[in-house]
Amino acid sequence: MTQQLEIVPVGSGIGAEVVGLDLGLDFSDETYSRLRTALDENGVLFVPDQDLTVEQHQGLARRFGDLLTTQELRKEADETQNIGDTWHVDGTYTAAPPAVTLLVARELPRYGGDTIWASMRTAYDALSESLKDTLEGLSAVHANVRGLTPSSAATVPPEPSVDAYDDAEGVLHPVVISHPGGFKSLFVNPAYTARFEGWTRRESLGLLNYLFQHCQRPEFSVRLHWRPGMVAIWDNTQVWHLAVNDYHGLRRVMSRAVVAGAPLKAAR
């Protein structure tokens, strides 16, 4: 069925709320097309007042592509470390990083536990033309040097040595990608981008740190205060995300479905 949804922007260049859509229904291709276009344009979508079963959540994810993985993200009241509490992009150390992530709120703390997204599309647009030209000629090595694991939030790995970053083989991705939506976007992130191709870690750090700081500017981000039944859908190829760890002593349970991606294309 075709639903009369409305897309309401909630941030400056990133984020929109989808009103009038029941994600649990078998909606039409026309409705999906509007949802996909809105995701390309806004980077992350928030859909309130849903009541998705596990099966409906997985079925929704399959509308966006092949289902790569599903997972329960849980932080218990006696844990102090959560999953994803630093800026990152899921799975960029793989040759075909995940395309879309869909997160469903299952059990929320009485305060805290927000998630923040940052737009790499708007961050790229704000760079000088000279720096854009430099970055478009570069690729970067992405590797899980820190050994981050999505299945456990019990410990924080220590920061590896410079030599460990230099020795990491990883995979190569363009620093600036050509997005299927018809725009350019930065594709580096603090968690997994080790160095530029042909550069050492030390040589890379100055420019990488500048980009990491630039991308965290408030005007490129949107913050979601979760409500029961809220669903967030984001384009993993054009946004970073961070789970705020400010609810010690409380429990938070989320369901995540991840959609498989394809190799990224360099901007030209």
Describe this structure in words.
The strands form 4 sheets. This protein has a 7-stranded mixed beta sheet, with helices on one face. The model has no long low-confidence stretch (mean pLDDT 93). It has one domain: Double-stranded beta-helix (4-Layer Sandwich). Strand 2, helix 1 (29-42) and strand 3 form a beta-alpha-beta unit. It has 268 residues and is α+β, with helices and mostly antiparallel strands. The chain has 6 helices and 15 strands. The protein is 22% helix and 28% strand. The protein is globular and about 50 Å long.
Put the structure in a nutshell.
The protein is of the alpha+beta class and 268 residues long. The chain has a single domain, classed as Double-stranded beta-helix (4-Layer Sandwich), CATH 3.60.130.10. The protein has helices at residues 29-42, 54-63, 120-125, 129-135, 162-167, 201-215, and strands at 6-9, 16-19, 44-47, 67-75, 100-107, 115-119, 139-142, 171-174, 176-178, 184-186, 193-196, 221-224, 231-235, 239-243, 252-259.
CATH level 3 topology: Double-stranded beta-helix
Largest beta-sheet characterization: 7 strands, mixed
**Domain module count:** 1
Structural class of the secondary structure composition? Answer: alpha+beta
Mean pLDDT: 93
The unreliable regions are none
Order of strands across the widest beta sheet?
Answer: 1-2-3-13-5-15-4
CATH-defined architecture: 4-Layer Sandwich
Shape, please? globular
Distance between the termini: 39 Å
Fraction of residues in helix = 10-25%
**Whole-number radius of gyration?**
18 Å
> In sequence order, what are the helices and strands, one letter per element?
EEHEHEEEHHEHEEEEHEEEE
| Percentage of residues in DSSP E strands | 25-35%
| Annotated CATH homologous superfamily | Clavaminate synthase-like
CATH class: Alpha Beta
Tally of extended strands?
15
SS element count, helices: 6
